[in-house]
């Protein structure tokens, strides 16, 4: 196994998109940032230097960070932020994961532009469990704002209203030629007739689930979230923010140019949605050149409608592990967490300008009616490891304080969340079953729930209220997929299981950044086990403190 050394300089860089140039926070001047390529078993050492005017941290999304929780990155959870002028070296080893992950800033909304791909090839000497692709392309789906994303979230926090939606979706940072001033920079993916290539698709968008299609071509899904899956063929993918999907694509169509397109899946009823489409071009090398002075538009795929939940369900329920897996059967913690939005009453005495949500309210979000608040004086991990009192409490509830019908109109008294920094404590090696139940309070929508430090099995998903006597029988205990981010269906639920075999403090949150801003998060505190191999490593000497 190798060790890979990288320097990441976080800095403001002028970037031109949609006819305008503005200063954008980047890594090494690149938007999106550098692609890291490693083999399973390798070690990464990334020295992050902050030359921007904002606090920053970098998170290695999906990397298990076994015993190296100090390198996980979410600010105030596993470290204090790297201040302007400061630096921190992240050091960790990839253990048993193969496929596509990514890295992103985990501070305010900086990840809008601070992100990149992390490609993990098989262990040296091993090969893919599918025919070797001729070439590989990482496709990072994203969102671009004409404004500074930090200003967008600051304004939303000040007013209590929903933040402005982005001005474009992007593929590898490019909106594509359906947007103004974007044609000449549209990403071209070249392909030879008859070749089979691997596309590594990442949803790095801030706030948007996305459909993904390539005109006239079938996609064979072979992996997701850096685990292999039993291959299945589809014409459309749906990825929630945080999720990755690896697909094989064979160039078996007539030589021409075909659009690669991504468009919003927006399940929020009544919420504004952006119906624009971002495009790249799959270009056959043998495609005939258009006659001089003419141009032939690439073939456009028909995209699903923004509310096409049936297509999403058909896709998400197709995932299986490649073979029988050993799902933990003895459950130590049987948990039920509600996930959803709400509206807080305007606090007494507050100015109307801070209550610009619907009907003079402020948006909020919670899990089990707790709206998560990050600490500011210590990271949760430091407070845990050093026994510093008063930073968090360990009373995150195993069940919602009141159970009700999550699909109906509910009385507001049932969903006034309390603000708190609450964690749920697990002993090393305990097993967890967790039902994630979407509430349809205010609005029903799909929530991409991401757990740090772990992969989990998704046993089942469904619509309406989870009903143990009816739904337990649907659990896939044979070959469920292993993921780090679950798309909890709109107005429905997902059931996940994992073994708490990685000591540390691990954030779990909705990967729509606007929802984490409103408090849709919690953390698991996993205690050390017995002996060195079950114990968190000591903190690095350069760990940023508050
Ligand atoms: Cu990809 Cu907590 O994040």
TrEMBL record:
It is found in: Secreted, Extracellular space, Apoplast. Its cofactor is Cu cation. It catalyses: 4 hydroquinone + O2 = 4 benzosemiquinone + 2 H2O. Binds 4 Cu cations per monomer. Its EC number is 1.10.3.2. The keyword Calcium does not apply. It is an enzyme of class 1 (oxidoreductase). It holds the Pfam family Cu-oxidase_3. One of its GO terms (cellular component) is apoplast. Residues 10-124, 136-286, 395-528 form the Plastocyanin-like domain. GO terms for biological process: lignin catabolic process. GO terms for molecular function: hydroquinone:oxygen oxidoreductase activity; metal ion binding. InterPro entries: Cu-oxidase-like_N, Cu-oxidase_2nd, Cu-oxidase_C, Cu-oxidase_fam, Cu_oxidase_CS, Cu_oxidase_Cu_BS, Cupredoxin, CuRO_1_LCC. Keywords: Apoplast, Copper, Glycoprotein, Lignin degradation, Metal-binding, Oxidoreductase, Repeat, Secreted, Signal. Belongs to the multicopper oxidase family. Lignin degradation and detoxification of lignin-derived products. NCBIfam families: laccase. This is Laccase. It comes from Penstemon smallii.
